[in-house]
Design goal:
Elements (H helix, E strand, L loop, with lengths): L10 H5 L9 H10 L2 E4 L4 E3 L7 E7 L2 E6 L5 E7 L4 E2 L1 H5 L7 E4 L3 E7 H9 L3 H37 L7
Antiparallel strand pairs: 1-8, 2-7, 3-6, 3-8, 4-5, 4-7
Helix pairs in contact: 4-5
């Protein structure tokens, strides 16, 4: 059965997503007209850990889970994403293999942004909007790092409580 056509987003839709916060109306119009959307069914993988890519995704509707391979080989859920969230931005920034897999847990609509889109629709068009876009990514990466730091601190504190205060000072 063929999938129904995916809707195009409006500049107003994009303006409500943090990734596009602060971008000019003209840039939002260009992005809304140029960036493709894709429907993903529940259970479908969007990206696979270890794959190479230069594409990120913005969740327009639906829900996805971010999963990592555990030491025993099973999947470990590390995050849940919903409308307005984005993922895969590291592939735009550093072009390394995917650090995690992402799977839809409900019917989902995503907006695709490739490195080529960033270059042609932002960098070559409007340096200020390009800088804002990159800063929006940096802010989210910083927020995620703070969360990870907090989780690690709690983990180490729990280990310290259970097994002692850590390495002995000489």
């Amino acid at each position: 059965m063929a999938r129904p056509p995916t809707p195009k987003l409006t500049p107003e839709h994009l303006a409500d997503i943090g990734l596009f916060g602060g971008l000019s109306r003209a840039t939002l119009e260009t992005l809304a007209a140029s960036l493709p959307t894709t429907r993903i069914e529940a259970g479908e993988m969007v990206v696979e850990e270890g794959d190479l890519s230069t594409q990120m995704f913005v969740v327009v509707a639906g829900e996805l889970e971010v999963i990592k391979k555990g030491e025993s080989g099973g999947d470990v859920r590390v995050a849940v994403l919903g409308p307005g969230d984005w993922f895969g931005e590291m592939s735009i920034i550093d072009v390394q293999p995917r650090s995690a897999s992402v799977r839809a847990v409900a019917p989902t609509l995503v907006l695709s942004v490739t490195a080529e889109h960033v270059e042609s629709l932002l960098y070559r068009r409007d340096m200020k909007d390009y800088a804002l876009f990159v800063m929006n990514i940096a802010r989210e990466l910083s927020r995620r790092l703070r969360v990870a730091d907090g989780i690690l601190a709690q983990f180490y504190a729990a280990l310290s409580t259970r097994y002692g205060s850590g390495p002995r000072q000489r």
